[in-house]
Amino acid sequence: MDSLIPDARNLEFSSRELVKLNRAVMKKLADQIPVGSKVSLCGTSSSDIFYACEFVPFLDIMLSPDVGSSKSKTLLKPHEIRLIDKLADLVKSLDIKLESQRDMETNQSHLLYGPDWEGITLFSSVEHNIEQRKRSLNIKRQWLFPLLQAELDAALDISLLKRQRLSPLLVEKGR
To answer: pTM of the full predicted structure?
Structure first.
C-alpha cells in the first residue's frame, strides 16, 4: 500500500523525536524550579502544557531584554544593572548555560541558552520569520551574554573565596 504522503514514516519519527526533545527541555527546567515557586504555581507546575505554552515562552522573553546602553557594567544605567543582577540570579538558580554555536555554512556564531528551548518558542507564521527572529535574539544576546557571564563569574569567585576562608577554620576546629 502506497502512502499519500511521501516519507510519512520519517516525518512521524522526526516529529516524535522533536516531542521527546521538547519534553526533555521542559523537564530539565521544571526540575530546577525551587519548590516555593512550584507551590505558588498552584499545581500547574506538573503540566507539560503549562511549561510549553507559558513558562518557557515567558522565560525566553525575560532572558531576551531589549538591548541596553553599554556592554560594560560600570557604564550601565541603574535599572540595567538591577536587570543584569536579577537575570544572573535566574540563570544560576535554573542552571541555564550560556552557549555559542557556530553555523558551518555561514561561519556565523549563534548564542543560545542551554537547554535550547528555541524549538518551543520559535515558530514561523505569516507575520514572523524564524530567521529574522533568530537574528534579533542573537543581537540581544550579544549584549546580554558577556554581562551575564561576568556576573556569574563574579558570583563564582565570591563563593570560592568564602570556601577558601572557611576551609582553614574547619581544619583548626577539627584538631
So the answer is: 0.79
